[in-house]
Amino acid sequence: MSRFPSAEPVRSGGGQRRLRLPTDTRSGAVSGPLAARLVAYLYLVPMVVLVGVFLLYPAADTVWTSLTDSTGLGSANFVGVDNYVNLIHDSAFKTSFLNTLYWVGGVLLLQVGLGLLMALVLSSTSLGKALKGIFYLPATISAAATGVIWFFVFTPDQGILNSSLRFVGLGGLTHSWLTADPPLNTWSMIVAFTWQGLGPTMLLFLVGLQSIPREPIEAALVDGATGFRLFWHVTLPLLRPMTAVVVGISLINSFKVFDIIWAMTQGGPYRSSETLAVTMYRESFVSFHVGYGASVAVLLTLIVLVLSIFYLRAMFRRIEKY
Amino acid sequence: MTGLTEAAAGATFERPRIGVVRPALHVWALTLAVLWLVPLFVLVITPMKSVPEYQDASQWALPHDPLELFHNLKTAWTSAGLGPGFVASLTYGLTGAALAIVFGSLGAYAITRLGVRLGFFWFILVFSGTIFPFQMYLIPLFTMYTDTGLYDTWLGMALFYTAIAIPFCLFVLRGFFSTIPAEIQDAARLDGAGDFRIYWRIFMPLARGPIAVLFLFQFTWIWNDLLFGLVLSTSDGIRPIMPSLLGMQGVYAGTGPPIVLAGALIGSLPTVILFLLLGRYLLRGLTLTAGQV
Q1: Does residue B97 form part of some domain?
Q2: Within 13 Å and on the Cβ side, how many CA atoms surround B136?
Q3: Per-position pLDDT tens, chain B of length 293
Q4: Residues of B with CB below 8 A from A28's CB?
Q5: Residue B73 needs a FRET pair 20 to 30 A away by CA distance; which of A75, B27, B167, B232 works?
Q6: Beta carbons of B37 and A134 less than 8 Å apart
Q7: Residue B17: inside a domain
């Protein structure tokens, strides 16, 4: 016999409705004995407890901490929105915010723009298959390791970038890329980030291109559209769903960049290449301005949530279709 | 469609579908691909050099004695302390990914098949764990860990990695389980199987494909994590590999770049090998991730 007394009643009770594709909303249809219903909740317990304790409670607690003058030690006092007000007058925060915008712009331009371009090129060349792997390979390396590799690529003396520039007679263009004046150090890191992130972006665009129906393209070709006009008026509009996904992911990820910066400059020199995520870490765990750091975390979260609101709506619409 | 337009369309089949092709673009694609290989060249070639050899030439120079690689790998693994981080991350990755799949699938099964009330609410509650930037978790986790003694312990790290991997597992498996026909479940019930047995013997084996993808993705994520390792651990043997790598970079960047890059090689090899072996699953997982948003 079954371990759970729910088996029989559930089957006979819900038999008719079960012919439909099962959905969550079906839950009301099942009417088992109370004990069986309670057993069902046991399946949820490990998941809900772990996520609640290690993710959701900390997220809520950070909001509270951002309203205190906590230093991580001893008791903290409630200070209202003081931390947020102080952010506005903090020049390090302004730099950090500006750098974050550079990251967003750089990622959209390089990772998304170049990713789309490469997808278009690769989808129309027989080399596509081989090159796809090359562009994807860096994505399998961690952001921290990518930062380490590019730290050495950018080394002023032995670094492969500067020595290549010297070799082709462009020695005047050499820089000490990571200790250079801002925003050059940030842009250098954006290049490293693009190296790592181009592959997945490109692959998503390739998937999108493959799912475009042939007919409109062929019709446009028959009508004499070619090259850029074909791309702009036919391909790009048809690609819009995937573009929305890629832009959304890239936008959100570019706001959250931390690992690669921590590996390359740690936000330096003199906090000139920090982003919001790095500022939050430095304030909280290096300077122990914990309340202040929490307010940066909350601000970052608000920005990401607001930006992705359309995006989340689209996602939930999709989920509800199940 | 008339025969004429079909013929006309057929004639265009020779031309690329997207229609932006010129030989110049091929050359450009090849050039970019070569550029993409340059940092990998640095990653692979530099650890084959001795430290003085590295200091004397550009990174383009080929190594005199490639066997120097093993010496540098050994130094990175033992003296620079990357070995314990490697082992720790391996255990975190395997444990965290496996437990997250078990807990996430139990939840998915309850929500889609056991008729728990407010199924959608439970789903959104857990799934909302993917919405916040990680910075939202750090401070309270650090406080909680130091208060409870979980700080800098294997258990503390494994618990956190399990928790953070759960929401995506729930998302994917909930989607998959709801596509399994109810008749399968009903037939098993008629044969006297209980709910748990149906979950373990029927649903989980059916979900082998998505589970493989999830395992690959969550293992890779845990392996590559830097931030939580930095905040929640400090000692050798507990600290995961990526924070260990950066710690080593801090010590050796000036005196031994070949050793640091040997460390980067050690840290990258497992995920690169996984990709080479299971590339097609990675692509499937990637489109899953895109489907998530």
Answers
A1: yes
A2: 25
A3: 333 333 333 333 334 444 445 677 788 888 999 999 999 999 999 999 988 888 888 888 888 888 889 999 998 999 878 999 999 999 999 999 999 999 999 999 999 988 888 889 999 999 988 889 999 999 999 999 999 999 999 999 999 999 999 999 999 999 999 999 988 888 998 988 888 999 999 999 999 888 988 998 899 999 999 999 999 999 999 999 999 999 998 888 777 899 999 999 999 999 999 888 877 676 666 666 655 43
A4: 115, 117
A5: B232
A6: yes
A7: no
CA dihedral B46, B50, B53, B57 (to 10 degrees): 10
Mean pLDDT of chain A: 83
Residue A82 CA to residue A67 CA, distance in Å, equals: 7
For residue A17, pLDDT over 90 is answered with: no
Find the domain containing B94 and state its range. Answer: 77-292
Domain A85-320 sits in CATH at 1.10.3720.10
Q: What is the CATH number of the domain that holds B222?
A: 1.10.3720.10
Residue-wise pLDDT for A46-93, tens only, equals: 999 999 999 999 999 999 999 999 887 778 889 989 999 999 999 999
Residue of chain B nearest A215, judged by CA positions:
B9
pLDDT at B159: 97
CB contact under 8 A, A297 and B8: no
Number of A to B CB contacts under 8 A, please give it: 395
| Assigned domain for B57 exists | no
Tokens found for residue B4:
């004429």
Q: Say if CB B186 and CB B198 are below 8 A apart.
A: no
HSE of B140, CA atoms in CB hemisphere, 13 A: 23
Domain assignment of residue B278, yes or no: yes
Angstroms from A301 CA to nearest CA on chain B: 6
Longest dimension (CA), chain B: 78
How high is the ipTM of this complex?
A: 0.86
Q: What values do phi and psi take at B16, rounded to 5?
A: -60, 150
Whether the CB-CB separation of A83 and A291 falls below 8 Å is answered with: yes
B contacts of A215 (beta carbons < 8 Å):
9
Quick: pLDDT tens for A259-295. 999 999 999 889 999 999 999 999 999 999 999 999 9
Of A134, A160, A301, the CB nearest to B136: A301
pLDDT at residue number B228? 97
More confident residue, A201 or A30: A201
Asked if B128 and B254 touch (Cβ cutoff 8 Å), the reply is no
Shortest distance between the Cα of B167 and any Cα of chain A, in A, equals 8
Q: How far is A118 from chain B (nearest CA, A)?
A: 7
- Indicate the length of chain A as a whole number: 322
Please report the sign of the dihedral spanned by the C-alpha atoms of residue A103, residue A106, residue A108, residue A110.
negative
Give the angle subtended at the CA of A79 by the CAs of A75 and A85, to the nearest 5°: 135
Partners of residue B183 in chain A, C-beta under 8 Å = 18
Domain-wise residue ranges, chain A: 7-83, 85-320
**Hey, how many other C-beta atoms are within 10 angstroms of the C-beta on B116?**
23
A256 pLDDT more than 50: yes
For an interface test with B, the pick among A23, A50, A193, A206 (most B C-beta atoms closer than 10 Å) comes out as A50
Task: Tell which phi-psi region holds residue B105, choosing left (phi > 0), alpha (psi between -120 and 50) or beta.
Answer: alpha
Residue B223 with chain A: CB contacts under 8 Å? 142
Number of domains in chain B: 1
Chain B CB within 8 Å of residue A143 CB: yes
